[in-house]
């Protein structure tokens, strides 16, 4: 995060699907807490994020489907103080 109190990363596991399993983790370095954030839409994966201040993330998801047909389908703001 811009203030340095949190860090976020995407854990990507190759499970044989085009994008694999991708889970966004946000870690509160001061509170020693980790939050796992997955896409709320079935058939999509989290592929990118940006910080909005120290407490919110702009998260983007993609839908994948055979032959590398990929399109962005959703983005939302996740507030680490209270969820989506």
Description:
The chain is built from no helices and 6 strands. The two termini are 18 Å apart. The strands form 2 sheets. A 3-stranded antiparallel β-sheet has the order 1-2-3, with no helix packed on it. The protein has a 3-stranded antiparallel β-sheet with strand order 4-5-6, with no helix packed on it. With 84 residues, the chain is mainly β. It has strands spanning 6-13, 21-28, 33-37, 44-52, 56-65, 69-79.
Main sheet: strands, sense, barrel: 3 strands, antiparallel
For the secondary structure, the number of strands is 6
Q: Structural class, from secondary structure content?
A: mainly beta
Mean pLDDT: 84
Q: What is the global morphology?
A: globular
Cα distance, first to last residue?
18 Å
Order of strands in the sheet with the most strands? 1-2-3
Give me a quick take on this structure.
It contains no helices and 6 strands. The protein has strands at 6-13, 21-28, 33-37, 44-52, 56-65, 69-79.
Secondary structure blueprint with pairings:
Elements: E1 6-13, E2 21-28, E3 33-37, E4 44-52, E5 56-65, E6 69-79
Antiparallel strand pairs: 1-2, 2-3, 4-5, 5-6
Which key phrases capture this entry?
84 residues, mainly beta, three-stranded antiparallel beta sheet, globular
């Amino acid at each position: 995060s811009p203030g340095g109190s949190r860090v976020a990363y995407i854990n990507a596991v190759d499970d044989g699907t085009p994008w694999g399993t991708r889970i966004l983790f946000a870690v509160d370095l001061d509170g020693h807490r980790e939050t796992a954030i997955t896409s709320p839409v079935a058939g999509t994966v989290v592929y990118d994020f940006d910080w909005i201040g120290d407490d919110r993330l702009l998260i983007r998801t993609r839908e994948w489907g055979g032959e590398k047909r990929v399109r962005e389908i959703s983005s939302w703001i996740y507030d680490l103080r209270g969820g989506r």
